[in-house]
Amino acid sequence: MDSEIGEQGRGRPRDPRIDLAIRSAALAVLEQSGYSQLTLEAVATQAGTNKPALRRRWRSKQHLVVDALLSRLGSAPTPDTGCTHCDLIQGINTLSQGFNDGNLGKVLPALVADLDNDPALREEFFTKLFHPRRETSARALRRGIDRGEIRPDADIELVLDLLGAPAYYRALFGHLPLHDGLAEEVVTAVLSGVATEQWRGHHEQWSPKQKD
Length: 212
What we know:
Blueprint: H1 16-33, H2 40-47, H3 51-57, H4 61-73, H5 84-100, H6 107-117, H7 119-146, H8 156-173, H9 182-194, H10 197-206, H11 208-211
């Protein structure tokens, strides 16, 4: 795999297999060594390629980490199943699972610090990862308003902050675990504040906890 099929400047397309191998290798190195110890050389060795192949694709190891996080967390986590709280639970759950998987939550504090020092990196993080993920959840909330499940005067931006904050907060500070039921607890708590009586009535019938 150390031969570069996608070498820039020679008119040949990049090989997506190399891109995938490098992202997977970056995640593996992050799990093994942590953010501060991650180097392009270590990732290249793990991926079976070379450092120039990485340099042609990513400006720095930080940009590679953003792409690796994107490959693990996804840019469109919140589905459209016709059930507002189900959609939001699935979307928020990708954060808890993603940050727990391979201890990626430990990457976040150092990466956030680097975002402050590199405007281009910050722009890439928000453009490729943060804003697209957030928008899929915003669409779920707007669908909930259309279905009469969420109050039309709900502050969507504030609700999005409330939904995502526990996972990011726990990943940043590590004071509490990102446990399996966190997403459902967060979504239920937030919707209890912005949901209509129509949603409350439906959810009380649906919730397994109400049947215990």
